[in-house]
Structure formats: structure tokens, C-alpha cells
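Ops channel
N.P.: pipeline sanity check, posting one input/output pair.
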């Protein structure tokens, strides 16, 4: 299908000129280019108010983000050839950064492929398509990854809620046949197995890998509590790195089964225990039992998914961190994270500081981490910088 012109209103091109990839529906000159006549995923040429070509991409008239720019070279619009090229560019970065093939291979806009996420587990790929434009290119995406990576298996995990905003159905699909029950990976020399199709997101949180590596300096001979542990990425590694004892808290029984399996796999089963339950309730129970830990790790799901959730989400972060502080020893460590884009680094630190003052504790910020390098930040798109992790020393109030 030929590209359709999509013309912007006056002065609505500044963000795109700076390098941003998104076009919002209220920025379109609907008199000249009526959105309602376009099909979801249809190729589009983005034009300024004066008619100057700004880039090519695809459109979705039913979404607030009604268009996404994929290419700023008129000779190379979104196509099979462009997909192969962008995959090779993305792969070259990961191969420089990682000794083993376990990483996020494609991180949407930051890798020039908006709406597409690919995680690599050795010879297996998990692909998420989140936009109508990329859904139209599904067969071309599969062909491109087969050409560049020659995977043994490919699973489309197209079951994220964000697809609903694009008017897309949610589904999983084994694209090549023979998808395994579990995926294996290695991080910092520690081996893990994760659910191949029923796990969270794509099965693993590669974005925290660099922060988990930072944790090593703080765990030796420490009693550790890993809250929202999932399959034990933090907790099992803490045990391997020399923690004396690790408790992993998660609401999912199957996740804790995976924790136990991964602990056994790495020879630290006797150090690792699971506690099933809601994070808030579990922390209250541990506080009531007068349990104390030398290190508490908080890696919760996003409490703020939309701007309107900010007030309620900030309160949740404060409560969770306050509960964590109450089960820490006098000279303990708190590693606390937020993957909510709408929670800034500065605001998260303020919220944790408020929690510490409420329970008469003092904080020292020792390190701050973001997402790992396989989740590169697009300088023109602050939306791609979402993860923040603080390493805090917790002392009696002073």
C-alpha cells in the first residue's frame, strides 16, 4: 500500500525536528488529512504545516499517538530491507556489550523500530508487537529475524494491554513450532530458567541486569529480603554472591517455585526461602514478627502507568518503602526501584526520604542506576528513560 500524506498543524513539527518519533492526534491538520479515512497501520509520510517532508512511518487514527516516525530517509521507508538493517545495527551494539546472547535485542524507538520489542534467550527470541503499524509487518519481522539471527524458536508475546489502545487483539503465537516449556539464560555467570510463555512480560527483566551487578558489593554475609522477586533474579544472585540468607517475596506461587528451582540450579538452595503473598502484607507480617534484614530489595511493578495515577502511585511507593525501612537493621541497605516513567528520579528519592523521616531513619544515597545498556535511551524521547534504582544506606536518624 502506498504511503498517505499526514500533514501537521502550524508549529507542531518542532518535537519531530528535534528527533522525537511520535505524532499526537491533536497535532494533525484534519482539514487537509482527515484521520478517520485512514486505516490502522497504514504507511504514512509526515509533512509539516508548509508541506515539507519530515519522515515516514505509519498511522493509527484510533490511537492518541496517531503516527510514529520510522525513517527520516525518503529512500528507505519501513520495509523488509529496513528491518534487516535496523536489526543488524541493534545486534552490533549488543554483541559489543554482552559476552553471552541474553539481552533485549530491540528496544522500540531507541533502536529505530517503534512498536517492536525483541528479547533474546540464546537461540530463542520473544517478540512483542505493540502497534498496528508493526502488526502489519509481522511476517516481514519474522523473516528479518530469521535472516539475521537464525533462531531455533520464535514466540510472539502479543498479549500486552498496550495493544488494546491500538485496537489490536491480544494473543501468543509459536511462530516456528517446538517452543520449549522453559527458557534458559545466564546473567553475571548465574544460570536461570524462566517460563517460556507464561511468565511476566517476555519472561525476564533484562533492564535491571546492570543494577543487579552493582548489588554484589553489598550482599556478602548479609541477610537479604527480595520483595517482588518474580523468579529470583535479585535474590538468587544475592545468595550466589555470598549473602548468608535470602527471603524472596512474591504473590505468585509459580514464580516462587521458579525461585526454588533457580536456587537449586546454582547450589544455593539452603540459603533461599520463599514467602508467598502481597508485598505490602508480607512486609507487615515480617515487621510484626520483628524480623530484620541487612538488605532489602524493592523492584515492584509500575504503580504509575498513566499521568492520572501519579498521586495514588506515589503514595504506594511511599508505603512500600516505609514498610521496607521498618524491617531493616540499624545499618542496613535499601535497593529501591521504580519502572514508572511518570515517577522522576528526583521525585522517587523525595518519596523514599519522606518515608525514612516518618520512621525516624536517615538515608545516604550511595549509587543510582538506570536501565541496562540494551535498553538505550533516545535523547529526544524522555519516555524511553523509565527505570531508576537507588542504592541507599539506612541509618538511625541524625
Amino acid at each position: 500500500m502506498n504511503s498517505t500524506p499526514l500533514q501537521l498543524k502550524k508549529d507542531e513539527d518542532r518535537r519531530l525536528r528535534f528527533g522525537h518519533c511520535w505524532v499526537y492526534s491533536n497535532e494533525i491538520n484534519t482539514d487537509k488529512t482527515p484521520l478517520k479515512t485512514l486505516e490502522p497501520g497504514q504507511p504514512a509520510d509526515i509533512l509539516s504545516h508548509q508541506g515539507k517532508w519530515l519522515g515516514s512511518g505509519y498511522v493509527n487514527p484510533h490511537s492518541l499517538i496517531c503516527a510514529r516516525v520510522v525513517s527520516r530517509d525518503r529512500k528507505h521507508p519501513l520495509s523488509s530491507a529496513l528491518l534487516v538493517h535496523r536489526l543488524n545495527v541493534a545486534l552490533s551494539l549488543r554483541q559489543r556489550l554482552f559476552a553471552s546472547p541474553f539481552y533485549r535485542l530491540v528496544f522500540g524507538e531507541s533502536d529505530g523500530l517503534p512498536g517492536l520489542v525483541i528479547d533474546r534467550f540464546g537461540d530463542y527470541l520473544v517478540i512483542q508487537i505493540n502497534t498496528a503499524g508493526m502488526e502489519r509487518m509481522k511476517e516481514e519481522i519474522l523473516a528479518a529475524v530469521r535472516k539475521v539471527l537464525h533462531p531455533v524458536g520464535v514466540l510472539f508475546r502479543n498479549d500486552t494491554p498496550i495493544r488494546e489502545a491500538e485496537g489490536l487483539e491480544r494473543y501468543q503465537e509459536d511462530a516456528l513450532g517446538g517452543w520449549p516449556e522453559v527458557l534458559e539464560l545466564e546473567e553475571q555467570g548465574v544460570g536461570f530458567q524462566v517460563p517460556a510463555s507464561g511468565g511476566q512480560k517476555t519472561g525476564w527483566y533484562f533492564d535491571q541486569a546492570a543494577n543487579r551487578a552493582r548489588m554484589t558489593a553489598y550482599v556478602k554475609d548479609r541477610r537479604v529480603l527480595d520483595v517482588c522477586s518474580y523468579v529470583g533474579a535479585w535474590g538468587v544472585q544475592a545468595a550466589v554472591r555470598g549473602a548468608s540468607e535470602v527471603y524472596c517475596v512474591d504473590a505468585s506461587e509459580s514464580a516462587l517455585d521458579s525461585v526454588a528451582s533457580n536456587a537449586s540450579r546454582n547450589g544455593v538452595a539452603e540459603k533461599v526461602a520463599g514467602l508467598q503473598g502481597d508485598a505490602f502484607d508480607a512486609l507487615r507480617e515480617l515487621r510484626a514478627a520483628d524480623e530484620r534484614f541487612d538488605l532489602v530489595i524493592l523492584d515492584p511493578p509500575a504503580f504509575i502507568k498513566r499521568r492520572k495515577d501519579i498521586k495514588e502511585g506515589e503514595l504506594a511507593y511511599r508505603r512500600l518503602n516505609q514498610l521496607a525501612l521498618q524491617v531493616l537493621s540499624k545499618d542496613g541497605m535499601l535497593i529501591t526501584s521504580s519502572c514508572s516513567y511518570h515517577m522522576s528520579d528526583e521525585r522517587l528519592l523525595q518519596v523514599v526520604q519522606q518515608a525514612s523521616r516518618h520512621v525516624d531513619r536517615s538515608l545516604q544515597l550511595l549509587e543510582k542506576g538506570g536501565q541496562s545498556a540494551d535498553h538505550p535511551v533516545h535523547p529526544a524521547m524522555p519516555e524511553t528513560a523509565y527505570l531508576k534504582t537507588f542504592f541507599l544506606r539506612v541509618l538511625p536518624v541524625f
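N.P.: looks fine end to end. The chain has eleven helices and 19 strands.
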